[in-house]
Design brief:
Order of helices and strands of chain A: HHHHHEEEEEEEHH
Distance between the termini of chain B: 67 Å
Largest interface: A-B, 53 and 65 residues
Number of strands of chain A: 7
Number of strands of chain B: 0
Strand content of chain A: 15-25%
Radius of gyration of chain A: 26 Å
Order of helices and strands of chain B: HHHHHHHH
Oligomer: heterodimer
Largest sheet of chain B: none
Structural class of chain A: alpha+beta
């Protein structure tokens, strides 16, 4: 088998795959939209739980203030948890701007790339991190999102697929980062566990969470 | 066919999910990328999944790729590195089987259709990627090293071992003609 034989065989076998699906673009679009729907569904569920959780004490306090004798009926109010939230929901929504307004007062300045880089692990012999502001650094209130490159370095001599590497190998991988300003400083959050947080502004969520 | 794809581009643009340039790129280059993905995976479904994953990853960084000419090598690199990382994760569950005997018996001298693909499955992912990039995509050693993010020396050694392994798997046996009886 010479080089030409191998080339010919590879080209012939590669052609066995045929053409891409004519719906490839639609499939890509659907895959993106599916991810978005999944996350929106989770967000909606989390919001619903919060509204219900907030609605119960509000319902209790409203009942108590309109009623003369609050001491006699705490138990019945607790037992009506299911219907109460749907009717009490509008007053709870009023509370939301109050909390976001207080957050806006404390909103920090939009972080720069160096600030966000400081939230990532320090560079080591095998890992390096670099914020990529040209990919779009988005910030809103105490939240920010930015792309960054996580580079894995395989030192020379490491055995890969049975062959020791002769020199250092560099493998950059694009990542999306979610950042939050808490306790006077920025911190990098794990997207898997924090992207369901309903407080994340839509544009930040779109950049940090609605991606692969 | 072209009109059909053009309609697809418009539909995708209407959906506002992707840039028009990106949709154009997908339309133009996905057949070639799918073939590379197929050589890396040996399975049409897996190849399509790999291609879609690579394209979605690329779409995130599309703004950085101002030169459309540079996009194909970029996506090809994402394709290869994504496949390598998939294989790395799944490797512990795999048992590689030697499906090809060392002496496969009476084989025709040319490589049968599909056998190169099967032989590629016997190679570790990095070695397989080197073979595909060098002998299918026609990249130089330096270009292959750049695509894989490794040294030229590593490409040389992987290519050499990969080729040797493929020869064992694909070459017909050396048939020794038995000496006629009584000959000496």
């Amino acid at each position: 088998m010479n080089d030409l034989d191998l080339r010919t065989a590879l080209h012939r076998d590669a052609d066995l795959v045929g053409s891409p699906s004519p719906d490839l673009l639609e499939q890509l679009t659907a895959r993106r939209q599916h991810q978005r729907r999944q996350r929106t569904g989770v967000l909606t569920a989390v919001l619903g739980v919060i509204v219900i959780a907030a609605g119960i004490p509000l319902g209790q306090s409203l009942t108590a203030s309109s009623d003369g004798g609050p001491a006699t009926d705490p138990a019945p109010i607790v037992s009506t948890e299911a219907p109460a939230p749907s009717t009490e929901a509008p007053p709870v929504v009023v509370e939301a701007p109050a909390t976001s307004a207080s957050a806006a007062v404390e909103a920090p300045a939009c972080p720069d790339a160096d600030t966000l880089r400081a939230t990532l692990p320090p560079d080591s012999a095998t890992k390096q991190y670099r914020i990529e502001p040209q990919d779009g650094l988005v910030c809103s209130g105490s939240w920010a999102a930015a792309g960054y490159t996580e580079t894995t370095i395989i030192p020379a001599g490491t055995v890969v697929d049975g062959v020791p590497t002769e020199t250092d190998e560099v493998h950059p991988d694009g990542q999306a980062g979610l950042f939050h300003h808490v306790g006077g400083g920025w911190t990098n959050l794990a997207r898997m566990t924090h992207c369901d947080d309903p407080e994340i502004p839509a544009d930040v969520w779109e950049r940090a969470c609605n991606v692969d | 066919m072209r009109g059909h794809w053009g309609r697809r581009i418009k539909e995708a643009a209407v959906a506002r999910e992707f840039d028009d340039d990106f949709a154009e790129f997908v339309t133009r280059w996905s057949p070639a990328l799918l073939r590379v993905a197929f050589l890396l995976t040996s399975d049409r479904g897996a190849a399509e999944d790999l291609l879609q994953t690579a394209l979605l990853k690329t779409s995130r960084h599309w703004g950085r790729l101002s030169d459309p000419e540079a996009a194909y090598p970029y996506v090809r690199r994402v394709l290869v590195t994504t496949h390598t990382s998939w294989r790395r994760r799944r490797r512990v569950h795999e048992v590689l089987l030697d499906r090809f005997p060392e002496h496969p018996g009476s084989e025709p001298p040319e490589i049968e259709a599909g056998r190169a693909l099967q032989a590629l499955e016997e190679l570790p992912p990095r070695m397989r990627a080197v073979v595909v990039l060098r002998w299918y995509e026609g990249l130089s050693e330096a270009e292959t090293a750049e695509a894989l993010g490794c040294s030229v020396g590593s490409v040389k050694s992987q290519a050499s071992r990969g080729l040797a392994r493929l020869r064992v798997l694909l070459d017909p046996p050396v048939t020794t003609v038995p000496a006629p009886e009584g000959a000496r």
